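Justification of resources, computational component.

The compute hours requested in this renewal are based largely on the per-chain cost of generating structure records like the one below. Each record pairs the submitted sequence with a full structure-token output. That output is archived, and it is also reused by downstream analysis tasks.
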Amino acid sequence: MPVAKKLDQEEGLRHQLSAGQMAMVGVGGSIGTGLLLGSAAALEIAGPGVILSFALAAFINWTVAMALGELSSVHPAAGSFGLYGDLYLNQWAGFVARAGYWAAIAVSIGAELVASATYMAYWFPSMPALLWVLVFSALLLLVNFRSVGNYGWFEYWFAMIKVVTIVAFITIGAALLLSGHVSPQYTSQGGFLPKGPLAPLLAMGFALYTFAGIEFVAITTGETRSVQEIPRAIRLTFAILTFVYLGAIIVLVGVMPWNHAGVTESPFVSVFRHAGIPAAPHIMTFVVLTAALSGANAALYVSSRMLFSLARTGWAPAAFGRLNAAGSPMLALLASSYGILVALVLEKWAPADAFVSILGAALVGLLLAWLISLAAHVRFRQRLTAAQLAALPMRSPLGAWGSAVGFVLIVLALLETGWKSHLTLISGVAYMAVLTAAYFLLKRQKRTISQ
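The structure output for this chain reads:
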């Protein structure tokens, strides 16, 4: 199918998002409870060497950002990496990129809402968690039913709370280190690599998951107000995420012994308390609450656009491709909120394990989208003439080789994660098997209908 026709399939979406709003959707979807509360887990695996884990994850994220930047500036579409798979690889790649990402990210909505309910218990211990899940679900659906311009404004300021807090953490922590008020802890507890030279690789799965979000920006390009906004949005998102993650981890490792971080409270609370900031626990509870809600809000947006794209390309019921008066895919939004139902069920029957139980699936869908984006970019570059390359709205300094290196590194990270956790390996293989079976079943149905 010609490219123009594939883009026309998304007709009706409103083009209202600015570069800043697009970037903040990516940042909002990326910066969540993983960094704010879960950084202690990575420190336990790698010690201070976790800095290397995040540095390598940042490089992999750069290869993905540059690939998506080139592709999305030429083919702005809500279908994003699914469209790139269709155009430069094959229909199977386009389908599994969309469907796999939709299923995984929609489930993560529930994880963030369960976390939000947990944080509210700090102030309202007697209120049932189910009530908060319902209240926050209604709020997020209301925001997403409105025009994408209103959504972008809301998510921009939601995500900004997290960014400002982490920048404040980096600034305060750096000041404590440079002023001598805190002794640097980079080598104080068994050296920089107390768990051995390979330990940073063992923390790679965590580091890659925290960097998830750059692909959110590619999805927003289907509703950008101008193609010229796309390169700026991609670069801005990567710059913010890299500064936030590397800066926070470097400061965190420097101000706290790695084997004490997060034992009794969030490392962020510990640093703010050490700096003499009053009400530090209340401030951070508010921040992690907004982090979880912002993450759920961004995930609901991108998952609804993935389902919308599947419907417009014939891989999902056509009803999910319909738009309301505000230009929002209302039925796709409702279907994508199934993760909320998962959260409600798990909160009712397994509250102790709810957050952990529904968070793991998101990593598989994320890395699948990254792999297909990188592979499509290599093929995209191979087809370009010299004149077309010179005319690209955004040009990657890495070229095709950067995407090839990123592809190999992600595969190695997946293999390492599977080796460390056989359950993850089994579930990942099963996940791909289900997606592939669904592809052939739906392809057969599409062929029958067309005849």
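Residues 280-312 form the longest helix (33 residues). The chain has a mean pLDDT of 84.
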